[in-house]
Amino acid sequence: MTPFIYALIAAFAVSLLAFIGLLTLALKDKLLKSILIYLVSFSAGGLMGGAFFHLLPESIEEGTEPLMVFIYVIIGFCVFFLVERFLRWHHCHERECKNPLHLGYINLIGDGVHNFIDGVIIVTSYMVNIELGVAVTISIIFHEIPQELGDFGVLIYSGISKTKALFYNFLTALLAILGVIIGYLLLSWIEGINAFLIPVAAGGFIYIAATDLIPELQKVIKLKHSILTFVIFCLALILMLGLKIFSH
Fold first, then answer.
1. Which of 172, 164, 122, 177 is nearest to 148 (CA)?
2. Nearest-CA neighbor of 56 among 42, 45, 72, 44?
3. Domain map (residue ranges) of the chain
4. For residue 207, which of 47, 80, 214, 217 is within the disulfide window of CB 3.0 to 4.6 Å?
5. How far is 193 from 220, CA to CA, in rounded Å?
6. DSSP string covering 194-225, please?
7. What's the DSSP call for residue 50?
8. Contact by Cβ (8 Å): 58, 198
9. DSSP readout, 98-138?
């Protein structure tokens, strides 16, 4: 098989991780509802850790000028800010928005951008050599498992049904395959594309975690639950840091 076919298979395997939410289908709705805020907390930590421990260091390691990296981060932050402004207006026009449905949509957009970039990275690595491609794929899988679980929790928390959450999560995951195809077609330009897309995605991750998910955690009143959500947030950060260290 050609490196391109290997990359497509790897991207499809990574996309299947979107179904990790199936683990929660066996839970009763009451139990699932009681743990959703902890999945939101885990997702917030995972997004922050993904941005600061994975995406930003990767941008700098690739040789992008640090000032440009942070300019792209701000661009990503502002783009997601504008997107959420539109989503809030569309769903909450001229009335108070009590249903956090926009959280699910903005999270799907951020996850989709990230999956697309993963696809570009996968095809780039396989075009270098198969061994590197396999190593990169394994690294992405370890990174995606906790993030996909957290993303599924955010979708459920936002009011989307479990079945739809699985379907939407899988659709965004398939963008990794699109990333492989487009990355292969534009292989000579990949370095420049990644130099822009990776920090933009980091800015989106930071925006989602800091302005959407963490404020939801601030609504938790009981001391025990507040402490537990903070601990889970920190554990997600530590996990993402550990995955970065392990991958090196």
1. 172
2. 72
3. 3-8+40-247
4. 80
5. 40
6. HHHHHHHHHHHHHHIIIIIIHHHHTT--SHHH
7. I
8. yes
9. -STHHHHHHHHHHHHHHHHHHHHHHHHHHHH-HHHHHHHHH
Place of tokens 């530590």: 238
Q: How far apart are CA 119 and CA 178, in angstroms?
A: 7
What the block records as the tokens of 205 is 């991750």
Q: Which residue, chain included where needed, has tokens 């390691």?
A: 61
Residue 93 per-residue DSSP state: T
Q: Which of 246, 31, 235, 79 is nearest to 150 (CA)?
A: 235
Which tokens hold the place of 19?
A: 């179904």
Tokens of 30: 């009451």
DSSP-assigned letter for residue 248: -
pTM: 0.71
Would you tell me how many other CB atoms lie within 10 Å of the CB of residue 72? 21
162 and 26 in contact (C-beta within 8 Å)?
no
Cβ atoms of 48 and 206 closer than 8 Å:
yes
Q: What is the pLDDT of residues 21-44, one digit of tens each?
A: 777 666 666 676 777 788 888 888
What whole-number distance in Å separates Cα of residue 50 and Cα of residue 27?
A: 28
